[in-house]
Amino acid sequence: MHKDRGTCTGICKEFKVRKPRDGSSRYLSGQVRCQICGVFMLREACHDREDKPATDETVDLYCNCCNCMVRSRPRNKPGSKSKKTPEEEYNELKKKY
Questions:
Q1: 32 with 46: CB under 8 angstroms?
Q2: CA 66 – CA 37 distance, rounded (Å)
Q3: Are the C-beta atoms of 38 and 96 separated by less than 8 Å?
């Protein structure tokens, strides 16, 4: 394991990628995000726990720049918020019980 975690060394700038033009999600197109560096990059710019290059099957990915875990899935799903008003939700729950 690395001793120095959490400081961006600037290596990530060469791995920075742009948003897909087809309008699909960055995560669906195989991009990951480092929260420390604030950069979206491809999986090839990461390594696993044993410092081996990341593959498609690698689950835990770490940034090559700051050695912190990167996010490979969105924090929330689009459309997961309820479009009902609180009153409608309350009435719906009331009917169930």
A1: yes
A2: 7
A3: no
Q: Give the Å distances, CA to CA, from 97 to 51, 83, 85, 90, 92.
A: 53, 22, 19, 11, 9
Long-range residue pairs from 55-59, CB within 8 A, at least 24 positions apart, any chain: none
Identify any residues that bridge with 40 across adjacent strands, giving them in sequence order: 33
Give residue 4's pLDDT. Answer: 66
Averaged in consecutive runs of 10 residues, what is the pLDDT profile of the chain (97 residues)? 70 89 86 92 89 85 91 76 70 76
Residue 49 token pair? 């726990």
3-state secondary structure the chain: CCCCCCCCCCHHHHHECCCCCCCCCCCCCCEEEECCCCEEEEHHHEECCCCCECCCCCCCCEECCCCCECECCCCCCCCCCCCCCHHHHHHHHHHHC
Claim: this prediction has a pTM higher than 0.90: no
